[in-house]
Design goal:
Layout (H helix, E strand, L loop, with lengths): L1 H4 L18 H9 L1 H18 L5 H16 L5 H20 L19 H14 L2 H4 L3
Length: 139
């Protein structure tokens, strides 16, 4: 499978010793994959239902905290919380003000991105967290 080759697919004949590499193409492959996009949209939808769907700051903070706890098994630091708040507000403003059609993502994705700018930015935040080192690294 070409997708797995990017991630050093294990050789079934010698999987006791697996070579490791970290290359930019790995992050790009995950970011653009239909699997990551579908799951980020589904997770954002589920967490929005749990945390509330309004755009006020307490609800955003609750969503951010729920996302970190769900995906990274920890609460966000104060700096991460501040950056996520800023991302959600600034990106939502950009989406709301844009007259261009937003990029729909991978053509293989089964779930369409939300039409709501506030939900769309939540989907984007979840996708970013799926690329976070704490999510992809087993310790």
């Amino acid at each position: 499978m070409p997708f797995l080759e990017i991630f050093d697919v294990a050789d079934p004949n010698s999987c006791y010793r697996r070579k490791e590499s970290v290359i930019p193409q790995q992050a790009l492959a995950v970011m653009n994959s239909a699997l990551a996009q579908d799951h980020s949209r589904a997770i954002a939808e589920a967490l929005s239902k749990i945390s509330g769907e309004s755009d006020d700051e307490p609800t955003r903070d609750h969503f951010i905290t729920a996302a970190f706890e769900h995906l990274l098994s920890r609460s966000p630091s104060s700096q991460e919380l501040t950056r996520c708040r800023r991302f959600l507000s600034e990106h939502q403003e950009l989406l709301a003000a844009s007259t261009k059609t937003p990029y729909a993502g991978s053509s293989g994705a089964k779930r369409a991105p939300s039409n709501s700018p506030s939900q769309r930015v939540r989907e984007s935040l979840i996708q970013v967290l799926l690329l976070h080192n704490d999510f992809v690294t087993v310790r």
